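Project outcomes to date are best conveyed with an example. Our students and postdoctoral researchers have been running inverse folding experiments weekly, and each run begins with a structure described purely in tokens. The record below, which covers 141 residues, was selected by the lab manager from last quarter's runs and is presented without edits.
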């Protein structure tokens, strides 16, 4: 396992992919991206993440169906899956938990707290953050 925890983000919206990846990478995580369930399965054949952030509404097989599939496969059953959902309605939490998610994070994400929310779902052995970069500078016109 690398020193930086690997997070697989399964999200079909490219803006959400970029925002999520940029926040997590800044906080020391390594991020793989998948735009749908087929891409997610391809990424999982390549390497095993410590955590999957799963959009609930995906094209084709939705995120909860994919979660159920992953939880029945011995090769992926132990991976922690956290639902990402814009739906924060009554019953959503129960549906995500019933599908096999460890919990859920509401979208839009809060960029100030998101990395901490994600880290809370990781085992302590991989949750300790890498040093945060403080030398980043904004450039532009």
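After processing, the design step wrote out the following sequence:
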């Amino acid at each position: 396992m690398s020193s930086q925890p690997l997070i697989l983000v399964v999200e079909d919206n490219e803006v959400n992919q970029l925002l999520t990846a940029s926040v997590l990478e800044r906080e020391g995580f390594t991020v793989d991206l998948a735009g749908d369930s087929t891409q997610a399965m391809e990424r999982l054949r390549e390497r095993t993440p410590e955590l999957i952030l799963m959009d609930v509404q995906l094209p084709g097989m939705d995120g909860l169906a994919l979660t159920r599939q992953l939880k029945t496969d011995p090769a992926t059953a132990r991976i922690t899956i956290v639902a990402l959902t814009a739906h924060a309605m009554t019953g959503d939490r129960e549906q995500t938990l019933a599908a096999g998610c460890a919990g859920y994070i509401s979208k839009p994400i809060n960029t100030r707290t998101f990395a901490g929310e994600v880290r809370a779902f990781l085992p302590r052995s991989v949750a300790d953050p890498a040093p945060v970069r403080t030398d980043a500078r904004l450039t532009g016109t």
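The longest strand covers residues 80-85. The two ends are 40 Å apart (CA to CA). The training component of this project remains on track.
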